[in-house]
Design a protein that fits this description.
The chain is mostly helical. Helix 1 packs across helix 2. The longest helix has 38 residues. The protein starts with a helix and ends with a helix.
């Protein structure tokens, strides 16, 4: 019975996300994998944001109230969608144009690659559902909050406002705990194994989104190769540092939201489609609502987008570019505003990192002696084939070997984002009040996981440019 309830809870997430996608972008045709990926991301976010609004309104977050809110919305949407489909006279050509990336006539190599991807999905799903939560952060930060919400049905409890209670970072963003709370309500009980199903689904959404956006630029076989490269990175599927898919931590969800935001931003740079910018802005906001790192990563993205707009504001589109940049900043701020209002009212604990408070010139200069340790640790991390295979070596060869091609493409802005992301991580390790060696040992792999999909995207684009150039020259 619990399995049936679990399936229904996941189905509800997809339906809510799909309804949101159709409300926001009703006329955009997409591949089914892209729809599923975006629907899952939007579904988890809408559910979480509605719960936060219920906190504000003083409404108990229980199964009955959640049903009373979402059921009419879904029923109204599907009634309207059914009438629209009934009235629309779809030709055979329309049907084909709506699914331009569906596999046809798969060759043996493509079949093998798909089997590898499916095997990776099966492995992480098995580990997620048959292993209890075993990392400190998964249990004490995300799952514990979810259990409190399930029991108390509100955030206004001593667990969040009494400084004498066990400290578990009460001001951390709440997307993951609230989605876990949604699963608990559907199950009718707390289950630390079944609730972890959301993490393989974030992983599946990540590789699905990656593949479908690759197909906008590359052939099916080429896209499958790099999707398999992403899906089989050891740090994702069997990391011993707590960042793997099955660990119950928020690093893979953050990687999904952040990667989606960056890749769709690149699509907007290339094609200037309004829907790509909107998706990028929304998912960038959701990255902030997933982990604290999301805010720093968002600041990096805004900075690089500003540079792109500065160098690409030809006469006649200046106002349009300024509007796009403004929307890209405002939309994420609106998404996280309800949570920011709640968190501002919470007491500050001594144990909180409070990185902005340590971001001073004096702290940076005083801790500059840490730089050799930090940089050498990054080098050792990226060269560790047990976690990354030879991917980061391949990344270095692709970027350095074809740097002149990067300068001719919009991919240079995505590379700048990645470089500044690394600089951001170095800065965090420089100003942290904790022992830097101990912090690096337990967090560096997880930080790199968050930005690795973007690096894979850069390598795929870079290698394609080199291959195209050599093919044309020959």
């Amino acid at each position: 019975m619990l399995t049936v309830k679990l399936v229904l809870s996941i189905l509800a997430i997809y339906l809510i996300g799909f309804a949101t996608l159709k409300y926001v972008l009703p006329d955009v045709r997409r591949h089914v994998l892209e729809k599923l990926a975006l629907s899952f991301g939007l579904g988890t976010s809408v559910i979480s944001l509605v719960m936060v609004l219920m906190f504000h309104a003083g409404i108990e977050v229980d199964r009955t109230n959640l049903f009373l809110f979402f059921a009419p919305v879904l029923i109204g949407f599907f009634c309207a969608e059914s009438k629209l489909r009934f009235r629309r006279n779809m030709s055979q050509a329309d049907i084909h144009s709506s699914t331009p990336f569906l596999p046809k006539d798969l060759n043996p190599l493509e079949i093998f690659i798909i089997v590898v991807i499916v095997a990776s999905v099966g492995l992480v799903s098995f580990q997620a559902l048959f292993k209890p939560m075993f990392t400190y952060d998964a249990m004490s930060i995300w799952a514990l909050k979810a259990k409190i919400f399930f029991k108390e049905q509100t955030i206004f409890t001593d667990d969040f406002y009494n400084s004498d209670r066990l400290h578990y970072h009460p001001k951390y963003p709440l997307l993951i705990p609230l989605v876990e709370n949604w699963i608990y309500h559907y199950l009718g009980c707390v289950n630390d194994k079944l609730v972890k199903i959301i993490f393989p689904l974030f992983y599946i959404s990540l590789i699905s989104m990656f593949y479908t956006t690759q197909r906008r630029f590359f052939s099916r076989q080429y896209s499958l190769v790099f999707t398999a490269l992403l899906a089989t990175i050891p740090a994702f599927v069997r990391s011993d540092k707590g960042g793997a898919v099955f660990s119950g931590n928020a690093d893979i969800p953050l990687a999904f939201f952040y990667t989606t935001g960056v890749i769709y931003l690149f699509c907007w740079m290339k094609e200037r489609k309004r829907e790509d910018l909107l998706i990028s802005a929304v998912f960038s906001g959701l990255a902030i609502f997933t982990k604290n790192e999301g805010l720093g990563l968002f600041a990096v993205t805004v900075f690089c987008l500003s540079i792109f707009i500065f160098f690409n504001s030809k006469k006649g589109i200046v106002r349009q570019n300024i509007t796009s940049l403004s929307a890209y900043i405002i939309i994420p701020m609106l998404i996280i505003l309800p949570w920011l209002i709640l968190s501002m009212g919470m007491p500050t604990f001594i144990e909180e990192e409070n990185y902005p408070g340590h971001l001073t010139l004096g702290t940076i200069i005083g801790n500059v002696s840490r730089m050799p340790v930090i940089l050498s640790s990054f080098c050792l991390e990226l060269m560790d084939i047990r976690r990354w295979n030879i991917f980061w070596v391949l990344f270095g060869v692709a970027v350095i070997g074809g740097f002149k091609y990067i300068l001719k493409s919009a991919i240079k802005y995505i590379l700048l984002i990645l470089i500044l992301d690394f600089c951001l991580f170095v800065l965090v390790y420089t100003i942290t009040p904790w022992d830097v060696k101990e912090l690096i040992s337990c967090s560096m792999t997880r930080l790199v996981i968050q930005i690795t999909p973007i690096a894979v995207f850069i390598v795929s684009k870079q290698m394609r440019m080199v291959l195209d150039y050599r093919s044309g020259r020959s």
